[in-house]
Design a protein that fits this description.
Layout: H1 2-15, E1 19-25, H2 32-45, E2 49-56, H3 62-73, E3 81-83, H4 98-105, E4 117-118, H5 119-129, E5 135-139, H6 144-151, H7 162-169, E6 170-176, E7 184-186, H8 208-220, E8 224-228, H9 230-233, E9 246-247, H10 259-269, E10 279-280, H11 282-292, E11 298-308, E12 313-317, E13 324-329, H12 333-344, E14 360-367, E15 370-376, E16 387-394, E17 397-402, E18 406-409, E19 416-422, E20 431-433
Parallel strand pairs: 1-2, 1-5, 2-3, 3-4, 5-6, 6-8, 8-13
Antiparallel strand pairs: 7-12, 9-10, 11-12, 11-13, 14-15, 15-18, 16-17, 16-19, 19-20
The protein binds calcium ion (CA) (2 copies).
Length: about 425
């Protein structure tokens, strides 16, 4: 009986091909970003998604290091981690933000902030080698990185602009932001907040830079852009206790040193105390929809236009289709919360020690005097495992880690070896160029 259920589960998973996701997040204060990472790792273990990269938009050095620690905890230490490089300076996290503690108390693969990738370059490299319409971007931080990607021009990574790469390779940008109650509302979120809310609460007061970047992304994103407004994780503009999807308390079932539980407890330790760690689930609703679709939980309103004003008022209308839309919850908050919280729990998978497939069909391309090695994408046959990078060696020495299936050579002499790297960091057998 159990075998039949397992088989059915696997068939269902195979029918909904694994989504290839990039999470764009800001783990620092609000723990729902930790909740998202937990959900995504558990959904990857179920075979629902492959995590190609996680990038940060928070201005603290500890935030991307916290991401690296979470990946390490879930035995997927090799997932690339990127950071927004456009801040004038990166700050050190204050003690009351959980990334301060997670980055100090847990092991990780990226030892220093300097080991973290430039998020825009990472996006460009992954998209350049991706299949058409294969990528889902989930933004539960601010729009800094996606803005940077859209603004990026051709470079050594790709001859295409960021906008072209997004048009070809990205199927969906799903984001937490805005407020679409009755199709119109004041933004109090990642999108920059609203001027109208400045007198109500400090943190949702208008942030002009975020608002400007977000408006640019909304106006220029060539891929389907779907928002999960404040009203999904929470109830309405002002009454945060009305219609909340509350999750987190279930993490108390996990071991005391579980990284996600500790993230939530550290957040509340500096606020109301760590005994009650339930929190509204704004970010999780966006991720839930991005990976699972509408299901029983959400209704998607698509084929319309989102407008965000410079004062932070947003609205949606269906008269002109600009490939934009938003979701609304259609089930009781408690039922959505149960499903989200179940996805935040789950066993940590073992390190996947069986290697991914070996790179095939390596070729040397030459164009305008530039030599580039290209090869076919590899995969890892195990459920819950996938390829995240390729290590390049020249004459036996490691020279580069690529996040796509190409490598630009400085000098084509010598013998090259390429090994695929799975999420756990296990290497494939090498493939050589020139072939043996
Ligand atoms: Ca967030
Ligand atoms: Ca494997």
């Amino acid at each position: 009986m159990k075998k039949t259920i397992l088989l059915l589960l696997l068939l269902t998973v195979a029918a909904n091909a694994q989504k290839k996701v990039i999470l764009d997040t800001d783990p620092s204060y609000d723990p729902d970003d930790m909740g998202c990472m937990a959900m995504m790792h558990n959904m990857a273990t179920n075979g629902e998604c492959e995590i190609l990269a996680i990038v940060n938009t928070m201005h603290q050095k500890e935030s991307p290091l916290c991401i690296s620690a979470v990946n390490y905890f879930y035995n997927r230490k090799a997932i690339p981690v990127g950071d927004y490089m456009g801040y004038p300076e990166k700050k050190v996290a204050p003690e009351e933000s959980y990334d301060y503690h997670i980055s100090r108390d847990y092991p990780r693969y990226h030892k220093e902030w300097e080991d973290i990738s430039d998020a825009v370059k990472l996006y460009r490299e992954i998209l350049e080698s991706a299949q058409d319409s294969s990528i889902t971007i989930i933004v539960v931080g601010t729009m800094h990185n996606v803005y940077g990607l859209l603004k990026s021009g051709p470079d050594e990574i790709s001859a295409k602009s960021g906008k072209q790469l997004m048009a070809e390779k990205v199927a969906l940008v799903a984001t937490m932001g805005g407020n679409f109650l009755d199709n119109k509302g004041w933004d109090r979120t990642n999108w920059g907040g609203s001027e109208h809310l400045c007198s109500y609460t400090d943190w949702s007061c208008l942030n002009e830079e975020r608002n400007q970047m977000c408006r640019y992304v909304i106006e220029n994103c060539p891929a389907l852009f779907m928002a999960s407004g404040w009203e999904n994780g929470n109830g309405d503009y002002f009454n945060a206790n009305n219609g909340n999807v509350m999750t987190g308390q279930g993490l108390k079932q996990l071991p005391e040193d579980h990284i996600i539980r500790v993230g939530y407890e550290k957040y509340f330790e500096y606020r109301r105390g760590a005994h009650d760690i339930s929190r509204h689930s704004n970010d999780q609703c966006a991720l839930h929809y991005a990976i699972r679709g509408e299901g029983e939980n959400y209704t998607a309103f698509t084929n319309g236009t989102i407008t965000l004003t410079e004062k932070g008022v947003c609205s949606w209308e269906d008269t002109v289709d600009r490939k934009q839309g938003h979701i609304q919850k259609k089930r009781k908050d408690t039922l959505i919360a149960q499903e989200i919280e179940a996805l935040m729990l789950g066993d940590v998978p073992e390190v996947d020690e069986t290697p991914p497939t070996r790179p095939q069909n390596i070729q040397l391309l030459e164009k305008d005097g530039q030599k580039t090695l290209v090869w076919e994408a590899c995969d890892d046959p195990d459920i819950g495992s996938w390829v995240v990078a390729y290590n390049i060696y020249k004459d036996g020495e490691f020279v580069h880690q690529a996040y796509g299936t190409k490598y630009v050579l400085g000098d084509a002499s010598g013998v090259y070896e390429i090994k695929a790297v799975n999420a756990s960091g296990t290497l494939s057998d090498p493939a050589n160029y020139p072939p043996e």
